[in-house]
Amino acid sequence: MYWESLEMKEKVAFVNGVYAAGAKLKFHHKQEVKKQYNQDPNWVEPYYIERFYEIVDEHRSKKAGYQVNLVAEAMDAFYSNYDNTAIPLLEAVRIVSLAQDGNTEKADLYLLKAQKRYKTY
How far apart are CA 22 and CA 34, in angstroms? Predict the structure, then answer.
């Protein structure tokens, strides 16, 4: 499996890259929305934009902060379970980040859905 083939510094770099890409994506999206609707005083941000930002944030642990090594180590533990080995990396990052932030109910729900979707035989 790809994740297991990486050294810890590469795993940390991967998680850091995911976190940075998510933050940059959200920042640029907010800027574009602001440019488009800045002139309209009656404009209210629709729910789908708010939900999009929530989903982006779910891929980043706030409690881990800049200690992305904690997330990389949690990813190691995640992939040590055979039932999780076929789950794609970004879904694993989301599940682990939610769990790191204490949102275990949501993390468990996403985990069960992912295990069902990506069954290993």
Answer: 18
Cα angle value 118/120/121 (rounded, 5°): 135
Q: How far is CA 71 from CA 9, 16, 27, 66, in A?
A: 12, 9, 22, 10
Signed CA dihedral, 83, 85, 88, 92: sign only: positive
- pLDDT tens-digit readout, 15-40: 999 999 999 999 999 888 888 777 77
pLDDT confidence bin for 1, thresholds 50/70/90: confident
> Does residue 68 contact residue 16 with C-beta atoms inside 8 Å?
yes
By CB atoms closer than 10 A (0-12, 13-18, 19+), residue 53 is middle
Percent with pLDDT over 70 in the chain: 99
User: What residue type is assigned to position 119 of the chain?
Assistant: K
